[in-house]
Task: structure prediction
Amino acid sequence: MTKAPWWQRGTIYQIYPRSFQDSNGDGIGDLAGILARLDYLAWLGVDAIWISPFYPSPLADGGYDVSDFVDVDLRLGDLATFDQLVARAHALDIAIVIDIVPNHSSDEHPWFVESRSSRDNPRRDWYVWRDGRPDGSPPNNWLRVWGGPTWTFDETTGQYYLHLFHAKQPDLNWRNPAVKAAMFDVFRFWLERGVDGFRIDVAHAIMKDPELRDNPPAAGTSLMHREFGEFDRQMHLHDRAHPDLHPVYRELRAILDSYGGERPRMAIGEIHEFDWDRWAGYYGIDLDELHMPFNFGLLGIPWSAAAVRELVASVERALPAGAWPNWVLGNHDEARIATRLGDAQARAAVLLLLTLRGTPTLYYGEELGMRNVAIPPERVQDPWALLNPDRPSFNRDPARTPMRWTAGAGAGFCPAEVEPWLPIGGDLEALDVESQREEPRSMLALTRALLAARRASDALSLGAYAALAGAPDDVHVFERTGSGGSRAVVVLSFASEPREVALPALAGLAVAVSTHMDRAGEQIGADGRLRLRPHEGCLVQPPDVS
Ligand code: GLC
Ligand code: CA
Result:
């Protein structure tokens, strides 16, 4: 097998720590809970876990408002448990990726408490403070994705401070070298503790226009895959993605590269950028910036063969030579894939995710086909939803509900008599690990089979990608070819009726995995003919591999 670093060859599994496993019966998932479930993740066959923020936080934004970057929230554990988690994960050959939030801190972080205390405090310039305009309005016209201005007036010193997100998440001033040095020390702190990689929150946001100029108006087309209203009527030219962030990521890369150890250290950035050439810029001209900018393309396209084919082609075309792609179906900010597309389509989607060229990130519960859970109004936690009561689609809680380990009350997440921090959801039949482990055709069995196939095949984990022509319009077929001639073909139907393909590339191969989990080993004849049921996908390989 070709040698390749873990972050290229492997699959990343995202854990929202408050929702994975409660270990002490308070209804909140915690680090000891993750530790207890590492054996499950090893059994599933993932290579790395990314843990969303577990730092001390007043929870104004689900932990993305950090009041101490170098500690663990009391409710989630402590540093000693974190160290155990790293050690046990490494023993199982699972890499640890942690979320880091460099763009902002909590307003309760001591840095901000000092910064807001007086205009001449030494930390004043650690955040972005400005006078209002002569009429008293905010310094410029920037808007939050969440609605309203990015500025809040602070009575104590009579100036506005900048916050791209919640008012309790003031933006750090990355143009101040002391801030950069302090945040780089945060990275070093976790690198010393053995962390293998970082997921960098809103990595495109840390550098803004130095003059903080107004954004120009825009036609109103959405920058992302959601409609944001007023936010979409500006071109986000000055409030994000200033080219000065590239030297920062080059410096960070040098720090990561300076750490030795068994696994090279990795950074993957959350980049909301759908112009693929600009997106590709985050790899760095000499591949010396982020190892990967997250690719959210699959979140924004309709579920059709044409859209998938075109998206993969665009991403592949934009990739700089030698850069490694990655793919995502869901995360803690998005509706669950089974809810977005439907159950059958979610199976096809996981087959696509785990067979495309590039590192897949699997969101916890995706392997079960977990769906959005309805949140009663009085239990809504997400600030984005609380700030936009008229926009239910802004609520991210439905995709952050507890992992379902068993069918009973508490779902094996927390004791039956305890109310978990978010509802577990109704009595959905067989939507839990225990039931699906027993069921050979379950989504869990499918995910596990695909992860195993990916690991076993150089073609699937590292090989080249080529779309194949000759299938019906609503079927996407692609081939992966690895070193030493290994190959795999994926045939994926987007149709709600049966389809048939007949392709020379399939002749003599055999079905290794079908999304329906009932035809492994089926041989394909010399005519290359394969029938597909509605929304069926098949991974097809030489018979000796299957
Ligand atoms: C990122 C996170 C999101 C958070 C925001 C502000 O987009 O994924 O959950 O609300 O940053 O930190
Ligand atoms: Ca707990």
